[in-house]
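Internal tracking record. Fields below are filled automatically when a chain is submitted to the structure queue. Please do not edit lines marked as system-generated. If the sequence contains nonstandard residues, flag them in the REMARKS field before resubmitting.
Queue: standard
Priority: normal
Entity type: single polypeptide chain
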Amino acid sequence: MIDGEIAIVTAADADVILDGLLIAQGIQITGTANITLTLRHCTLAPWLELESGEPKALANPAIDWQADGNGRLTLDHTITGRLLIHPSVQIAIHDCIVDALADDQIALAASADGGQAAGSVTIVQTTVLGQLHVSAMELVSNSILTGIGMSDRTQTGCVRFSYVPPGSRAPRRYRCQPVLSLAEKAKELKLNSVENLPATMRDAIQTRLIPQFTSRRYSHPGYCQLSQRCTIEIRQGADDEAEMGVFHDLFQPQRETNLSVRFDEYLRFGLEAGITYIT
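SYSTEM-GENERATED OUTPUT FOLLOWS
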């Protein structure tokens, strides 16, 4: 554990790798040279816990990238708070949680108010609690964005098998929620467009599809775990019918199906079995 802030001054073509660290006060990058920063299996605490038990956002972002040289940031199996990243930096986020504490707070941008876009981003099997403002979404796949995502460029990139909130500005989407469910409902009613759906019906579908979590509290056992109350379109909405978000690779739906099949094969005649969730 590093009980403080990490300060990195860029050097020409430097390659920095942080692996398996708990960093209490975040990382600040300054300088003008190119640098590649990789975080694997790290935790940058999203917030401090007050004596009352309530969370308080850190004064500084988890990663504050002020260096204006071209760079690359890779987050792999990492929990982090909000990210303020210079527009010249390419960002790749895989199997992570990015937590801004609330859906209307900035999770990823270049400025604290979200007015300036971060660079191009790739997000795979990740849960983002908060808003994004980036120059381009090169790829968003099997992920959940709880806050509005804004991409300055929509003619490049792809968002697939992900939850993207209404009001977001993103490139072309493939089997994303709630757009997919709205389109299917419009087709079922033989309407020409989603816009022709009654407003009450459209709102009901969008509300039903909002991802629900066991807990959104960092350090809780069920942190960012999809709740059993969460709709099946999210819990089995990834490209391989696993769940969207950071716990995709648990393959929870497939494990439940396999267990049910084994019950049918080996359970004695006249008995019934079910699954009871303990977490």
